[in-house]
Fold these 3 entries.
Entry 1:
Amino acid sequence: MTTKQFDVVVIGGGPGGYIAAIRAAQLGMNVACVDEWKNAQGGDALGGTCTNVGCIPSKALLQSSEHFDHAGHHFADHGISLDNLKIDIAKMVARKDAVVKQNNEGVRYLFKKNKVSFFHGRGSFVAAKDGGYELKAGDETIIAKQVILATGSNARQLPGAEFDEELILSNDGALRIPAVPAKLGVIGSGVIGLEMGSVWRRLGSEVTILEAMPAFLAAADESVAKEAAKVFKKQGLDIQLSVKISKVTKGKKDVTIAYTDAKGAEQTLVVDKLIVSIGRVPNTIGLNPEAVGLKLDERGAIVVDDECKTNLPGVWAIGDVVRGPMLAHKAEEEGVAVAERMAGQHGHVNFNTIPWVIYTSPEISWVGKTEQQLKAEGVAYKAGQFPFLANGRARALGDTTGFVKFLADAKTDEILGVHIIGPFASELISEAVVAMEFKASAEDIARICHAHPSLSEATKEAALAVDKRTLNF
């Protein structure tokens, strides 16, 4: 039996992996992708963590819970009355699963369209061979001239509170809770903790978030973080900072968390479910890097240079398994760039213009530098801010929470950072990304005509505010 040979084999079918495979195929290479994700029936489930237990299903649940929250608290403002409001959790989860399946099938279709061969199973190195690499692809052995590693990341476990996905949950279990828990605990106030806490808070859970850091949303601009903390508290999220977890004890039907609070007092919290979201770790489980001498760093991430090349000739790595932010869209950009570099082109990824988004309500997004970073770096800057309270479209939506904030160089007016908290922040941030990629000034955005009435006018007004000349506030 002849061993199948490919120009490129991608290990991992998540956003970075499947996009890299498609782009390499578009550029004329003979490409295969190996991925081991399984659906409930044991079949393949292309799309990686993002599609199966991350970005896509969490947004589906966020949307469902937001509809429920609006029906219970905001429809009356529009003259819409509902009696006996209730939610069918099983149906909500089934809809989420259907959305995931649609995305799984979408990737499979794209592979077929672009003639990418797919192997369902774990991908791993066997040996270097004939200027390329021998790999295991599930039950088969294949040969690759070049390899792209896109194996993603796994949820970090808290020692003494290992995941059972029944009472102590990772992002996976948090997406499959069968009924609304009366009390929900969340360890970690990052993106996953806030989004999942928001879902179940809207549906009726009493949610307590325990965070070890003294600052809330330390990665975000301080003014955005302060606004978010105020809004989330008003919504009912109990966020406690500077917490030190002493012990987590799992009972038959609940979980007890012993911890020290910010004042040094011993506290005990008993919850029906506990979500642990304390970050993610690079996934190289079963990759067998030792077989070929692939270099990993102290965190277990694959070591790469600025072009995503590893220490091995013809082996590249992208996404969560390498340095940089663990974001699906960052992995996609690296995947495209690597495929183009393989083809002799000049793939490009600008880490300074990668947007960040938290899909809470209000949404939070940003790109570029925060005000505290500019201060620490000694950069002279100007700031401009505009509230959604003064935006006509936001008023019509009934959601005037938050603001848009611009940071621009004090001398050149080049945009250095844009920070948004408010309705559809995830969509509004794209204008700022484009502007920064082309090194636009705040004046450039201020001079561009924005449709009226639209939320994007808040972006224009914030740019005007840099020069202290807003028109509507």
Entry 2:
Amino acid sequence: MNKTIDLDKLSRDVTSLTEDVIEKSNIKAGELFVLGCSSSEVIGGVIGKNSSLEVGEVIVEAMLEVLENYRINFAVQGCEHINRALVVERTVMEAEKFEEVSVIPAVHAGGSCSLAAFNRFNDPVEVEHIVAKAGIDIGDTAIGMHIKHVAVPIRPKEKFLGEAHVTALGSRPKLIGGARAVYE
């Protein structure tokens, strides 16, 4: 069941959510932030069944504005129909030495946020594997495969965006050594 959603409120909520996760993850300028999102879930539908490009555009635009202010790089995960490939700027792909793959996201093969990012980025490319410092998962899309080892759960202030469940991940360096190792 799709619900009408206030797009201005959605934009404000995305901005607040993104600021919250940036603060809690300690992500820095130049690091990579990943978004996984089901616009279907945001509007009260079932993941992959009720995509809304308009909702995807609002989410990507609001998140991009915040990330650009912090000079944090952005990757947007596609859905399972494009094997969870990610949209990034070509400059990010080249700097990180990611491998480009051949696919262009569509609303029902990639998802609304992936397509919105592809349309909005200056020079978008699709890549298959990234290692992000932190990210937000809107609608239980499984971003964990894209987060730097060791992934650490973040508890955002808001647990829902529209009707979608929200989780977030940060990362920390591995703790290695034995009984005499010092970590702090």
Entry 3:
Amino acid sequence: MENTEIRVKILLSIQRALLGMIYSSIRAIAVGFEKTEKLKVIYYLDKKPTEDDYDSISEVTTEVLADIDFSEVEEKCIFTLEPISKLDKLNSWVYMRKEL
């Protein structure tokens, strides 16, 4: 698969996986990938991560894995109050809430 085709497939898959999964503590979600070798998803939160946050990110990546067979998955939930512009977007932002 060509890089553009992989990117489109991954972004569509994660957008579908995120339907109904966004909650108020999530500031932004970044996704990164190295072809279909590794998927990385980061939840940037406005609070310290809890088990529920890790369960949520795991549900999302499981949905993506149902579409695309990645060899490795990395999930991170990070508490930060840094401006979103200073956070690592990896390959792409897939969600970003409006902050004033």
